[in-house]
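Dear colleagues,

As part of the handover before I leave the project, I'm documenting each prediction I ran so the next person doesn't have to rerun anything. This entry is a single chain, and its sequence is reproduced below.
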Amino acid sequence: MVRYSLLLGNKDLLEKFSKSSKIFGIIFILLGLGGIIFPYVMSLTTAVMFTWLLLFSAFFMGYHTWQTNKKDWLGWLKTIIFLIVGILMLINPLSAVGTLGILFAIYFFMDSFASMALAFELRPEKMWWMSLINGILSFVIGFYFIVGWPISSMFLIGFLVGISLFFDGIVLLSLGNAAKEIKKEL
């Protein structure tokens, strides 16, 4: 605890952090529960947010290309691709969910192989099997995305985002409580 008080020795900062962490922790927990209970709504919400990020990226990529090199056809090509894909995903959010499903599957397969490789590198060490279990679970999730695609994407994206938000909220609440305890020690 002493090292935390050295890092966070400001009582006002600790108080603000504690209060803010608790408020946002509760919000994240509620959003997470919403995603877990209503995964289809969370999937569409996630896809729409990703779509808007893609559209904003197209705008900024185009602006950057305009400012730096108007003759850079690759910069313009990337801008046009981002813009077209973003517009198509905005017009049909269900296709955006399907696209995200494929991206999630790729991510989980890559995570699976990396975790399994790490497990076999750590094999004689204690707890090496936890990395192996993580790899197996990631493979199963990736496999489920692919086997049920695109239908599984509607459920899995919202459910997994909901779980992530839920645990983020728990972490924020824990950090808020820890900051309050550190403040008491000061």
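Residues 116 and 138 are 10 Å apart (CA to CA). The chain has one domain: 20-185.

All the best with the project,
I.
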